[in-house]
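[recover] target loaded
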């Protein structure tokens, strides 16, 4: 089978000839190839990233830029993003108020840390709610098709929705601490904001759902340590269930980017009809082993991930790395709903030789 056919087989509930290998190499590529970047994302095919995927032999699935744009036709609504002197700034202006965010570039991590959140208090929520009611979506499938053509059988692009309402607050624009306090002090206010964001996202989904993708991706960066079951049930469960339902009616699939403590959440995702849990990181970074993740998830949820950043980087030996990969691949004996990937992005400090090892390990130990 070709690499992309292996991924497709897993999503279709079939058994591929071996576990598919998918990697997000975008961050590693930018840092190690000294590629300048801001947070606006790729607007065209990045040939160097294509060449890296071909060298590694891993399917590309995310971080290819946006396959649609959002805009408001109200001239009083303005969204402006700029990068200057290492600071990425976003300003949102509406008739009911203005919001401003700042993120600062860190050359060591090659990333942008949040210096000023977009939202300072629940008083700012009305601006977001007004904005969400205004936004409209314009697909850009030409970019999707360009990546497919460039990557060939190493392409399996996921379309992506923005953060869900809960992720919009906790993972991106309000911060964990303020979000937790707001859910305790003003739960109705939080529900109103979450519902406004989710309603906007569902309109985006309706606008893109007939596009060429098979899998839709929500990058909520969920962590059950700070977003436990009562939070999930109150702010997340109904939304994920509705997105999964709409996709399944079209013969498509839903992947949720976890990228945090997954203890408990895998079962919750399966209950919502989610098809894949992405960016799964087992012990020693988080609580569960690969085998415990499979037990928690049941046999039908696709598990994508498997390698903690601490094991992928130079802090672990090649033997420790290989054993970690094998433990993940061993779970294929319990369920073929498995993808070999990093626990999020391939870390920038990972040696290229170790990344190249991964293809050999999957070929040797991941066959069915």
């Amino acid at each position: 089978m070709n690499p992309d056919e292996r991924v497709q087989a897993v999503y279709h509930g079939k058994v591929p000839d071996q576990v598919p290998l998918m990697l997000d190499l975008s961050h590693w590529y930018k840092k190690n190839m000294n590629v300048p970047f801001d947070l606006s994302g790729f607007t065209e095919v990045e040939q160097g990233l294509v060449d890296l995927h071909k060298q590694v032999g891993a399917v590309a699935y995310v971080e290819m830029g946006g396959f649609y744009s959002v805009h408001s036709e109200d001239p009083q609504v303005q969204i402006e993003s700029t990068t200057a002197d290492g600071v990425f700034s976003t300003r949102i202006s509406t008739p009911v108020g203005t919001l401003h965010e700042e993120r600062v570039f860190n050359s060591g991590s090659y990333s942008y840390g949040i210096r000023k959140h977009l939202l300072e208090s629940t008083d700012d929520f009305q601006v977001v709610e007004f904005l969400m009611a205004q936004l409209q979506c314009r697909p850009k499938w030409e970019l999707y098709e360009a990546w497919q053509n460039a990557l060939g059988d190493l392409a399996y692009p996921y379309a992506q929705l923005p953060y869900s309402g809960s992720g919009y607050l906790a993972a991106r624009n309000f911060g964990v601490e303020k979000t937790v306090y707001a859910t305790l002090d003003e739960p109705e206010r939080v529900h109103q904001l979450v519902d406004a964001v989710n309603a906007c996202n569902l309109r985006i989904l309706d606008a893109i759902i007939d596009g060429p993708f098979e899998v839709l991706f929500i990058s909520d960066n969920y962590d059950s340590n700070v977003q436990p079951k009562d939070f999930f049930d109150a702010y997340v469960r109904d939304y994920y269930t509705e997105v999964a339902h709409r996709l399944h009616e079209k013969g498509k699939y839903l992947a949720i980017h976890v990228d945090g403590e997954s203890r408990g959440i895998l079962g919750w995702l399966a209950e919502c009809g989610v098809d894949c849990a992405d960016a799964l990181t087992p012990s020693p970074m988080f609580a569960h082993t690969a085998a415990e993740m499979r037990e928690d998830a049941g046999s039908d949820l696709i598990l994508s991930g498997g390698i903690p950043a601490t094991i992928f980087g130079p802090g672990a030996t090649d033997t420790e790395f290989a054993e970690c990969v094998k433990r993940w691949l061993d779970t294929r004996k319990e369920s073929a709903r498995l993808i070999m990937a990093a626990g999020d992005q391939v870390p920038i400090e990972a040696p290229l030789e170790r990344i190249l090892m991964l293809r050999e390990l999957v070929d040797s130990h991941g066959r069915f």
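[recover] notes: The chain has a mean pLDDT of 97.
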